[in-house]
Amino acid sequence: MRGVETAEDAGPQVRELPMSSLTGIAANLRTAHGRPWLRAFAALLATLTLAACTGSQTGNELGYKENQPGLVVLGDRQDLVVFSLARDLGTGPNRIPLTLLRFDRSKIIDRAHDLAIRYGRLNEEPANNVEDVIWRPWPLGGGAYTFTADFDGAGVWEIHVVLKEPDGPISGKAAIQVSDSPRAPAVGDPAPRTPTKTAETAARIAEITSDPEPNPDFYKVSLDDAIGSGTPVAVTFSTPAFCHTHTCGPQLHVLTELRSRYGDRAHFVHVEIWDNPREMLETGDLGVGVVSPVVGKWNLPTEPWTFLIDGNGIVTARYEAFTTKEELVEGIESIFAPN
Q1: How do the residues of the chain divide into helix, strand and coil, expressed in percent and rounded to 5?
Q2: pLDDT: is 207 or 8 the higher one?
Q3: What CA–CA distances, in Å, run from 132 to 11, 146, 209?
């Protein structure tokens, strides 16, 4: 089993994670002194830092490679390495999370007020200015900048970032692929009313989730029943023990905090990526893994994902990759706010 990718494994780009490629790249995170998500999150930060040093050493041309929809590639070698953590992008408004690093591996922390971000089509002057960039700190340090980008057509777009520094501005950019429509449900779409596995005993819960410290509340209600209940729903699709991005455990920890905050005002559901996690854990054979049919019905190209759904069963927010509690609270509060 593999753990954190090395720089050589990761290559110069942040890669899309199709479900078909999950087998063989997972890491069993059960042995982390009772807090598996802590080690996992530290691994993520290390991976991002290592990957920052694997770009081309010469030339100023954008290293774009047209491989898969949503593939994100490092920008040209200027002063900043720009990672977009969003892969599944469609025309219209999209949430974009970015991580920024210097080429000396140092992270750009909490500098939203010093950033100027623009975006536009590949090889065109970026005409769209970003006004809503927010710094989102992660639990163990580091974090991501989020903003909204409104794409008026499909194709390859570039994100240009300029950071104000005492010795003068430094810059970098990244290319992203935008499709006509995203693969996963978009904001405004009816949420797919898919049945999911439920359990009440510890033994049964262990059969339907890879989380070594599961929250029983996440498995009491089937997702289709939750969506049809008239109550808002927060659902996370993730696989804590086999997470390619090492953020699934931290994301469920956030979901637990939200459950404690909102109680019965909303349903909170976890859907395991794998249909047979217990068999995978007991055999140690990732080759026996079967992707949950729910993942296919939601058409998820990566993991983890979190969706917010209002009382009418409509998707009000979608979050690809790890999302902080504060950002999810903003989305939940908007559901409860009076029209």
Answers
A1: 25, 25, 45
A2: 207
A3: 31, 8, 36
pLDDT tens across 21-39, in order? 333 333 333 333 334 444 4
Backbone angles phi, psi at 152, to 5 degrees: -95, 10
**Strand 143-151 vs strand 134-137: parallel, antiparallel, or unpaired?**
antiparallel
**Cβ atoms 307, 191 nearer than 8 A:** yes
Residues 332, 308: contact at Cβ < 8 Å?
A: yes
Amino acid, single-letter form, for residue 260: S
First-last CA distance in the chain: 50
3-state secondary structure of 291: strand
Exposure string of 177-196, with b = 16+ CB inside 10 Å and e = fewer, is bbeeebbbbbbebebbebeb
Chain mean pLDDT for the chain: 81
Q: pTM (2 decimals)?
A: 0.80
To 10 degrees, what angle do helices 248-262 and 325-336 make?
A: 40
Kindly list the distances between the CA atom of residue 93 and the CA atoms of 28, 185, 319, in Å, as whole numbers in the listed order: 36, 13, 13
pLDDT at 105: 86
Give the Cα separation of 137 and 99 in Å (integer).
11
For 283, half-sphere exposure in the C-beta direction (CA atoms, 13 angstrom radius) is 10
Amino acid 339: pLDDT: 61
- Name the maximum alpha-carbon separation found in the chain: 60
Tokens of 316: 């009000």
Q: Which residue has the tokens 């041309």?
A: 61
Determine contact, residues 79/103, Cβ cutoff 8 Å.
yes
pLDDT tens for residues 154-185? 999 999 999 999 989 999 999 999 999 999 99
Q: Are 76 and 62 in contact (CB under 8 A)?
A: yes
Q: How far is CA 244 from CA 25, 66, 170, in A?
A: 6, 22, 31
Q: List the Cα angle 139/145/149 in 5-degree steps.
A: 140
